[in-house]
């Protein structure tokens, strides 16, 4: 158990940050699944920039590594181009 005020504050901040990161990560994964389920090329083409923006946001916040984000973006773009 934390005894110092700074340690208690750090615990509060960490819990809050974990909840926010979980929300961003889950909403991005859901958007990726939605994109992969699309069969209309024009619809997928218009939805792709939104998903890429979400993935870039996760990489910017250091929730995902930048290389992982780039791999995911590459696979998504390849998927959309092959529809």
Order of helices and strands: HHH
| Helical content class | over 70%
CATH architecture: Up-down Bundle
Query: What's the mean pLDDT score?
Result: 96
Q: How would you classify the quaternary structure?
A: single chain
Query: CATH homologous superfamily name?
Result: Ribosomal protein S20
> What proportion strand?
under 5%
Unreliable spans: none
Biggest pleated-sheet summary: none
Q: What is the class in the CATH system?
A: Mainly Alpha
Shape: elongated
Number of helices: 3
Number of strands: 0
Structural class: mainly alpha
| Separation of the first and last Cα atoms | 54 Å
Q: What's the Cα radius of gyration?
A: 17 Å
CATH fold-type name: Methane Monooxygenase Hydroxylase, Chain G, domain 1
Estimate nothing, just give the exact number of structural domains. Answer: 1
List the keywords.
single chain; 3 helices; Methane Monooxygenase Hydroxylase, Chain G, domain 1; 83 residues; mainly alpha
């Amino acid at each position: 158990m934390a005894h110092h005020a700074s340690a208690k504050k750090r615990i509060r901040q960490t819990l809050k940050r974990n909840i926010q990161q979980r929300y961003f990560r889950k909403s991005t994964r859901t958007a990726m699944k939605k994109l992969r389920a699309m069969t209309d090329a024009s619809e997928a083409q218009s939805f792709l920039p939104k998903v890429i923006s979400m993935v870039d946001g996760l990489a910017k916040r250091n929730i995902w590594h930048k290389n992982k984000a780039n791999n995911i973006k590459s696979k998504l773009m390849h998927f959309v181009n092959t529809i």
